Amino acid sequence: MTELQKIPLKTIIGEDTSLAEYRGKLILIVNVASKCGLTPQYDALEKLYERFRDQNFVILGFPANDFAGQEPGSDAEIQQFCRGNFSVQFPMFSKIAVAGEGRHPLYSALIAARPAARANSDSSFREKLKAYGITPNAEPEVLWNFEKFLVDKNGNVIDRFAPDVTPDDPMLLAAIERALAG
C-alpha cells in the first residue's frame, strides 16, 4: 500500500475511508465546487465515469471552498446539488482544503508527486483568472476548482491536469486509456 492510499478520508456522508478502498482501480481525483464557472464539468465527469467505470476506473470528487468561496455549502447540500443537478453517481467526499496552509494531507501528497499540471497549449486559464481580478496560486499549488490528478491502479500519481482540461478533452482521455491498457 502506498502512502497516498493510507491517508484518512471521509466520504460526503461522514464515513471513514481511504484510497486503499480503490486499490486496483484507476482513479481520477478532482477538487470540485458548486458555484464555479467550471461547475458544468460535473456533467462531463459523470459521463466519463459511466464510460469507463466497468474498466476499473473511478472518479473521486473532493469539494473545496478554497477559490473565491465557490463551495459554501455543507456536505449534505453539496451532495444534494450534485445528485439533483448532474445525477452524480461517482464517489464524493467531505469538503476539504486543497490549497494553502490548511491543505488536506491528500492534496499535499498529490501535489508533491505531481508539482505541475498539464494544460492545453492554447490554455489561458491563469490569464482569465487575472482578468477577473484574481491572483492565481503559484505552482505547485492547485490553480482552481476542477484540477485533476490521475492515480494508477497501484496508488501512484501518474498525471495532473489544469482546471480547464475538461473531462472529455483528448489529452485526458488518452491518459486514461493508456493507464487502463496498462
Which helices and strands occur, and which strands form pairs?
Elements: H1 3-6, E1 9-10, E2 16-17, E3 26-32, H2 41-52, E4 57-63, H3 75-86, H4 105-113, H5 125-131, E5 148-151, E6 157-161, H6 170-181
Parallel strand pairs: 3-4
Antiparallel strand pairs: 1-2, 3-5, 5-6
What does the average pLDDT come to? 96
| Secondary structure: helix percent | 25-40%
What distance separates the N and C termini?
19 Å
Q: Per the principal axes of the C-alpha atoms, what is the gross shape?
A: globular
Sheet with the most strands: spatial strand order: 4-3-5-6
Order of helices and strands: HEEEHEHHHEEH
Q: What is the total number of structural domains?
A: 1
The level-1 CATH class? Alpha Beta
Number of helical segments with 4 or more residues: 6
Structural class: alpha+beta
User: How many β-strands, per DSSP?
Assistant: 6
Low-confidence stretches: none
* Relative strand content: 5-15%
Task: Return the CATH architecture.
Answer: 3-Layer(aba) Sandwich
Can you tell me about this structure?
The protein has a single domain, classed as Glutaredoxin. Helices cover 31% and strands 15% of the residues. It is built from six helices and six strands; from the N terminus they run H-E-E-E-H-E-H-H-H-E-E-H. The strands form two sheets. The chain has a four-stranded mixed sheet, with helices on one face. A two-stranded antiparallel ribbon has the order 1-2. The protein is globular. It starts with a helix and ends with a helix. The mean pLDDT is 96.
